[in-house]
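Q: Given only this backbone (149 positions), what sequence would you predict?
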């Protein structure tokens, strides 16, 4: 995939939609392109995070450990962003992310991620939106699970 193609893909991600093209080129150039096969683990729950991933192709399962074993709580795919909670909050990973198909990702280091958020406050707003949506969904699922018990 060329730099221009990566920039075009980044432009489609809401998080980066308002970022100027020169910064997207920098992001694409300084990020590590990583390929995962189905079954490969991007990162594991409880590990410390040093990077986030943008999914360029493919899909992955988001899995949390429970007393009854691993539970898949979501599936993510093209244009989704994963792993940002651990680097934003400086906490261990909240879930395991495992490739459900062949995947192509851009791995963004913690340092680059914070530099982008500092330079582009609209990215921080979009990240808050995504995290708020995830929290609302998780809270709703928890309420439903408690109601069924």
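A: Predicted residues:
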């Amino acid at each position: 995939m060329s730099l221009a193609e990566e920039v075009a893909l980044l432009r489609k991600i809401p998080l980066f939609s308002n970022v100027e093209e020169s910064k997207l080129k920098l992001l694409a150039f300084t990020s590590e392109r990583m390929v995962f096969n189905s079954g490969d683990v991007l990162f594991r729950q409880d590990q410390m995070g040093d990077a986030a991933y943008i999914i360029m192709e493919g899909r992955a399962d988001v899995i949390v450990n429970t007393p009854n074993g691993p539970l898949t709580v979501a599936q993510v795919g093209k244009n989704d962003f994963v792993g940002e909670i651990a680097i934003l909050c400086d906490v261990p990973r909240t879930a395991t992310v495992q490739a459900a198909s062949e995947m192509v990702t851009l791995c963004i280091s913690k340092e680059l991620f914070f530099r982008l958020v500092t330079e582009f406050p609209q990215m921080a707003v979009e990240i808050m939106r995504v995290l708020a949506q995830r929290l609302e969904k998780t809270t709703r699922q928890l309420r439903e699970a408690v109601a069924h018990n």
